[in-house]
Here is the input.
Amino acid sequence: MNLGRTLAVAKKEFLHVARDPRSLMLAFFIPLFMLFMFGYALTLDVDRVPLLVWDSSNTPQSRDFVEAFRGSRYFAVSEGGGGYRQIEDAIERREILMALVIPHSFAGALGKAGGASAQLIVDGSDSNTATIALGYARAVAAGYSTSIALDEMKRFSGGQPPTYPLDFRLRVWFNEELKSKNYIIPGLIGVIMMIITALLTSLTVAREWETGTMEQLVATPIRGSELLVGKLAPYFVIGMADMVLAVLMGEYLFHVPLRGSLLFLFCSATVFFFGVLFMGIFISVAAKGQLLASQIAIVSTYLPAFLLSGFMFSIENMPPPVRAITRVIPARYFVTILKSVYLKGLGLAELWREASVLALFSAVMVFLAITRFKKKIG
Here is the structure.
């Protein structure tokens, strides 16, 4: 490979990108805009759940129970006395997600053998949010029940606090505050980088065929491998620049902790970018048309990266056939590396399998692109 000819092609492609506002927007503005919008819009946190309380007991005990919900940051409590009709209307108008119904016998039943009961009505039209909110409500109810039990045991144990055989304490590792953005942003970086880099490079060779400049390149002494590497150089630089900006946004805009090695992170990104860039070139060579190339690039990168990489949906919960398909999705391994480096501080010693798969993917894509590209007309 002649370095001078390769650099000449790279210079030509740099000038083309610099003089094309659409390419610059696609290269820089779109990934940052997607990261900004998805980073704020995509969240699995459920806060301030609108909860309507119908307290038929209206006793100090029932008011304490309501205060337990009001004191939680997960609920926005409002009270009403309109009965089930009011609850039904509020749920239908999507004004509330949950309703707490406390019966007349609530205070009198506390401390008795059967125990007191209360009803929780949940809008199940959004099953994911309802499930999370239901878990919060159960935790509040369990805390209130425990406090009542403690009071009863103290009263019947001569004023001495009771002892328990089990001291159960919860501790969360790696994402102590359970913020969904700490989980989403690292994976989102990998998904966006794959989509943008493959989409950009899928248009390069196809554009040469459509504009008629491929005939001029064929007439030059440039080899096929030199032409491909030269055309990819600008997009590799753009991809790494986007990666730097994405890491900076994660650090200073979203405040996502980066616990691992920055060097290993960018080395992994380099290997991943090589594979995705040559994948885009392979699509461009095979399609020979910008519209078809862009459509193939979107279908082969966006949907698999978004749905099958573990970015949003846990791979372990997928059916076995789908889990098998995810093994050939390169974004799966890059997303795993990103999340592990960001949240767990892992490095090559723990992630060598994922790094090896990315290296294999890059080698295969380089081979396919160079083999498929023929420097000839027809």
Q: What stands out?
A: The chain has two domains: 3-43+179-372, 49-155. Residues 164-168 have pLDDT under 50 and may be disordered.
